[in-house]
TrEMBL record, chain A:
Its EC number is 1.97.1.4. This is Pyruvate formate-lyase 1-activating enzyme. It comes from Pseudovibrio axinellae. Residues 1-220 form the Radical SAM core domain. GO terms for molecular function: 4 iron, 4 sulfur cluster binding; [formate-C-acetyltransferase]-activating enzyme activity; lyase activity; metal ion binding.
UniProtKB/TrEMBL annotation, chain B:
Gene3D superfamilies: 3.20.70.20. It comes from the Bacteria. This is Glycine radical enzyme, YjjI family. It comes from Pseudovibrio axinellae. It holds the Pfam family YjjI-like.
Length: 220, 510
């Protein structure tokens, strides 16, 4: 399938058509291409964040891009952040952290079996990444996705609380609420997370001592 | 009964209008029963074909379109005509302003500019507690919306960070009223980061204030400075604008064979005709109406030689697309580099033409080009140089496409950026967007947040819930319908016209 950006109406039907979930909108960019884009938009930026998919699967590119930004006189004031699921090994983090200002890290679940069920992988690396990034002073925020009846149980929330407390009660914890926007397949049958429940959980975490719990201001 | 009397009767018996709205339409009908100021045949033809337009200001201009008084005169010296002593306390100052507003005409007979309020009021606030200041200004704000219900009435605050500016923006975000409209004048050398952040936070809450780029505006004016009135018209203080006439650029493009014909023949022709229309109207105002004998001039609230002529254009988007088609190019305005560049070139040509033409009875002898946003786009014409509604690119691309126009429109060019409600999660992004836009040359910045009840239509504020109410009654979604003039059509609107309306948008009874 071919994608023509000039007539694309962003209906995303092309994503549904492909049996292996390939995305015809994917574009190849060189580091220079991205730098040109960043330069053009520089007046509107105070930093850039690489995201995905999982951005760290393109680790060499990230290192090259961040290094180029830090070395460029007109761009070096931009911060460079990574949005990640934390599945990167320790040595790989070490290679990118010197040019990275911060990482936003997703933790999908604390219970190992639940994590495997949700993501197909175990969570040891994710938890180790969080600790490593925190020690390096590069853990900008931890994110936790609340899914009703799956990740909002007492046991999960207790482990979430203890994990954050062990790192730092001032660490920014962003609670995200599962919604159907952009969701496909079986998960569409899962109920969405309601604002009242998110706020209740946030209040509870704060009451137990976490100081920097952030909740969504919009539910879509 | 003559047709005219029939119209009078229709107005008096229209159940959709309040008595004040009836009185206004009756006066407009009476004025328009008079002969138009003498126009030559070519100008009259262009006007009747609406290639040029007088904004339906009326046949006998007896007041300037926008009056921008120096209200410090009445506060500091009082007024012999109004039998007011100089104000010595905040209560007296607010009371004097409330009286003064009723004596300041504009095209709508309501004030379109109520002052740079922090400049005016700060000196009376030194012994007023924060709590009292909040209470007094809140009552003042309520008074403005209820007694002067015009969405074009406009207050200014800033650029300095001060108690009055902060309190007004706080109250404005709390009350979410349609009137008054509000502009914050921003100057990175003067405004603090805190007050700039407060302004951006307020935009997220109620789509107000509009933000003006003071470093770009201030140098164009003198020691009296400027004010922002109505739909983002930047005008000399202690004066204003006599008229606003405008060229429908789409109509000019339609009458052109191609781009060359447009630039060499057709556009220059209509630029000239619009000047003649402006001159005829200004001549009537200055030499026949007697307006400048008013106490406002004698007491120094305004000066006769400080009234500019606003030279407006609109439908740039349709004009460019029309010319693109004539040249066999498909790129659309706002989205295509060639189309955008053509638009910038048209703005430049207009600016140079306006700058080259000396005018009598006009501030500094020259008109000021204006990207006109004040009438609705029923006819498929987009306001000013804006990108058509619904086809706007993302906010950054939007700003980049239009920034180059801004240098050419000294009396104002307003864009409305529609931002997703998720901006609530990230107010810093809005701040960065404003700063980015200003660094690229934007003179002013307005944003609607997509889930706010209070939003801009062409530049004035409306409440979406009001529109919803009218929709439930079977009315159409068009703003003018909702906003008054066409609201008189009983088939569409069963209820009364809204209490607060946009009087500039309904310059005639129809």
């Amino acid at each position: 399938m071919l994608h023509d950006a000039s007539i694309c109406s962003q209906c995303d039907k092309c994503l549904d058509v492909c049996p292996i979930n390939a995305n015809p909108k994917v574009t190849q960019y060189s580091v220079d291409d991205v730098l040109a884009l960043v330069r053009k938009n520089k007046p509107f930026l105070n930093g850039i964040t690489v995201s995905g998919g999982e951005a760290t699967t393109q680790l060499k590119f990230i290192i090259a891009l961040f290094t180029a930004i830090k070395a460029d006189k007109t761009l070096h004031d931009l911060t460079c952040f990574i949005d990640s699921n934390g599945h990167l090994p320790e040595a790989a983090w070490k290679s990118v952290l010197p040019v990275t200002d911060g990482v936003m890290l997703d933790i999908k679940a604390f219970d190992r079996a639940l994590h495997v069920k949700l993501t197909g992988r175990s969570n040891e690396r994710v938890l180790a990444s969080a600790r490593q990034l925190f020690e390096a002073g590069k853990l900008h925020e931890l994110r936790y996705l609340l899914i009703p009846e799956r990740t909002d149980g007492q046991q999960e929330l207790k482990q979430l609380f203890e994990f954050v407390r062990e790192l730092d009660v001032d660490l920014k914890l962003r609670l995200n609420a599962f919604q159907h926007h952009g969701v496909k397949g079986g998960a569409l049958k899962w109920p969405t997370m309601k604002k009242a429940d998110v706020e209740r959980i946030a209040q509870d975490l704060k009451a137990r001592g976490l100081k920097n719990v952030v909740t969504p201001s919009v539910y879509i | 009964m003559t047709e005219l009397l029939g119209r009078f009767k229709g107005i008096t018996e229209d159940p959709g209008l309040s008595f004040a709205q009836k009185a206004r339409y009756l006066s407009l009908e009476a004025e328009n029963a008079l002969p138009y100021p003498a126009l030559d045949a070519d100008t009259a033809k262009a006007l009747s074909e609406r290639v040029i337009c007088d904004m339906y200001e009326g046949h006998a201009p007896f007041k300037p379109r926008y009056v921008m008084p120096d209200y410090s005169v009445v506060l500091e010296k009082g007024s012999a005509f109004l039998e007011l002593d100089p104000a010595t306390t905040l209560d007296e100052a607010l009371n004097s302003l409330m009286i003064a507003y009723h004596h300041v005409p504009s095209v709508t007979n309501m004030p379109v500019f109520i002052g740079r309020l922090d400049d005016l009021l700060l000196r009376y606030c030194s012994d007023v507690s924060d709590e009292d200041l909040y209470k007094k200004l809140k009552l003042f704000w309520r008074y403005l919306d209820r007694v002067l219900p015009d969405a074009f009435m406009h207050a200014n605050v800033g650029p300095s960070d001060n108690r009055v500016a902060r309190t007004i923006m706080r109250i404005d975000a709390e009350l979410k009223q349609i009137a008054p409209n509000l502009t914050f004048l921003w100057d990175p050398q003067v405004s603090s980061d805190e007050i700039f952040s407060q302004a951006c936070q307020s935009i997220i809450e109620c789509s107000k204030p509009h933000i003006a780029n003071n470093p770009l505006h201030q140098p164009l004016f003198d020691e009296y400075g400027y004010g922002v009135a109505s739909c983002y018209n930047v005008l000399p203080l202690c004066g204003g604008a006599s008229t606003l006439t405008r060229i429908n650029l789409r109509e000019v493009a339609r009458r052109s064979k191609d781009t060359t014909d447009f630039f060499e023949n057709v556009l220059p022709k209509y630029i000239d005709l619009n000047f003649r229309l402006t001159e005829a109207r200004i001549d009537h105002l200055f030499n026949k109406s007697g307006f400048f004998e008013s106490f406002l001039v004698k007491e120094g609230w305004i000066q006769r030689d400080r009234f500019t002529a606003m030279y407006g254009v609109f439908a740039m988007a349709q004009c460019v697309n029309e010319l693109q088609e004539k040249e066999g190019r498909s790129g659309q305005y706002g989205h295509d580099e060639t189309a955008n560049k053509l638009g910038h070139r048209i703005s430049k040509v207009l600016f140079e033409a306006v700058d080259a033409r000396p005018m009598e009875n006009v501030w500094r002898g020259k008109a000021m080009l204006h990207s006109q946003a004040g009438l609705s786009d029923d006819d498929g014409c987009t306001p000013g140089v804006r990108i058509p509604y619904g086809s706007e690119p993302d906010p950054v691309t939007h700003v980049q496409a239009l920034a180059e126009h801004h240098a050419y429109y000294p009396s104002g060019v307003s864009e409305i950026l529609t931002l997703d409600e998720t901006i609530e999660n990230n107010p810093a992004a809005l701040e960065q967007l404003v700063k980015g836009a200003f660094s690229l040359g934007f003179r002013e910045f307005s944003a609607n947040i997509s889930n706010n009840d209070l939003v801009r239509i062409t530049g004035y504020m409306v409440r979406l819930s009001d529109i919803e109410k009218f929709n439930e009654c079977g009315g159409s979604r068009t703003n003018t319908t909702v906003l008054g003039a066409e609201a008189a059509d009983k088939g569409k609107i069963l209820e009364r016209a809204p209490r607060v309306m946009s009087h500039e948008l309904s310059p005639r009874y129809s």
